[in-house]
């Protein structure tokens, strides 16, 4: 499928989660968003509220990032604070150990955050490179049962890697259009971005948005 840079930009969460980024660097990055035409900016919750005129660009924040091994109540408080400080969307990391060993508790972890942010869109990061196909399917089903809006491949910080076409396709097939699918982690060029969309992604998380979109020309 042929897409324009404008069409792809509207599916992008323009993301800066680098731990050592300064306030000035985050502000400069965020201020690029309206001109790039992206869907949202995604930042660490400590950067909120954003002191920038973003127009119609939405604000997303991460929760339980990047390990997912925070207590569920801490994740819920973190997410609620982020929404209170202007986040329209929350990208939470599920507890991977629970997902692999105790799915009921992993589902409760997601539900705890869902209940804390009723008005916000919720994405659940599964860290798919660290999971088997069966575990990815389980994670997708748990996210759907808990009322999440999206499942997401990766934080971009796990040593196992980021998004893969196989994982995106499996997630897309599992949620069947009932949830969105966000591909994130390692999308650094125009070709890869489009391959992820062709595989079933409905949102892309990228830090190199400008260079990726430039690849359409």
UniProtKB/TrEMBL annotation:
Keyword set includes Lyase: yes
Chief location of this protein within or outside the cell: cytoplasm
Single GO MF descriptor: deoxyribose-phosphate aldolase activity
Localization of this protein: Cytoplasm
Active site, per annotation: 91 (proton donor/acceptor), 152 (schiff-base intermediate with acetaldehyde), 182 (proton donor/acceptor)
Swiss-Prot/TrEMBL keywords: Cytoplasm, Lyase, Schiff base
Catalyzed chemical reaction(s): 2-deoxy-D-ribose 5-phosphate = D-glyceraldehyde 3-phosphate + acetaldehyde
Enzyme class label: lyase
EC id: 4.1.2.4
Gene Ontology annotations for the cellular component aspect, listed alphabetically: cytoplasm
UniProt keyword Repeat, yes or no: no
Record-level GO BP terms: 2-deoxyribose 1-phosphate catabolic process; carbohydrate catabolic process; deoxyribonucleotide catabolic process
Gene3D superfamilies referenced in this protein's UniProt entry, alphabetically: Aldolase class I
Pathway: Carbohydrate degradation; 2-deoxy-D-ribose 1-phosphate degradation; D-glyceraldehyde 3-phosphate and acetaldehyde from 2-deoxy-alpha-D-ribose 1-phosphate: step 2/2
SMART domains assigned to the protein according to its UniProt record, in alphabetical order: DeoC
Matching NCBIfam families: deoC
Protein family (similarity comment): Belongs to the DeoC/FbaB aldolase family. DeoC type 1 subfamily.
HAMAP family, A to Z: DeoC_type1
Chain's role: Catalyzes a reversible aldol reaction between acetaldehyde and D-glyceraldehyde 3-phosphate to generate 2-deoxy-D-ribose 5-phosphate.
PANTHER family listed in its UniProt record: DEOXYRIBOSE-PHOSPHATE ALDOLASE
Protein name in UniProt: Deoxyribose-phosphate aldolase
Organism: Propioniferax innocua
Lineage: Bacteria, Bacillati, Actinomycetota, Actinomycetes, Propionibacteriales
Gene name tied to this protein: deoC
């Amino acid at each position: 499928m042929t897409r324009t840079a404008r069409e792809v930009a509207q599916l992008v969460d323009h993301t800066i989660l680098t731990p050592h980024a300064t306030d000035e660097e985050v502000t400069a990055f965020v201020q690029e968003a309206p001109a790039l035409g992206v869907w949202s900016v995604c930042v660490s919750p400590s950067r909120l509220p954003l002191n920038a005129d973003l127009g119609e660009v939405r604000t997303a924040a991460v929760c339980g990032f990047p390990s997912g091994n925070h207590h569920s109540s801490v994740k819920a408080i973190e997410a609620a604070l982020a929404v209170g400080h202007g986040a329209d969307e929350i990208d939470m990391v599920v507890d991977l150990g629970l997902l692999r060993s105790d799915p009921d508790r992993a589902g409760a972890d997601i539900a705890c955050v869902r209940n804390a942010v009723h008005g916000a869109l919720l994405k659940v990061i599964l860290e798919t490179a660290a999971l088997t196909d069966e575990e990815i399917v389980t994670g997708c089903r748990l996210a759907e049962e808990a009322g999440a809006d999206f499942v997401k491949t990766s934080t971009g910080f796990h040593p196992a890697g980021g998004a893969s076409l196989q994982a995106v396709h499996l997630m897309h097939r599992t949620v069947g259009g009932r949830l969105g699918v966000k591909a994130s982690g390692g999308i650094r060029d125009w070709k890869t971005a489009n391959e992820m969309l062709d595989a079933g992604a409905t949102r892309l998380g990228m830090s190199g948005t400008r260079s990726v979109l430039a690849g359409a020309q």
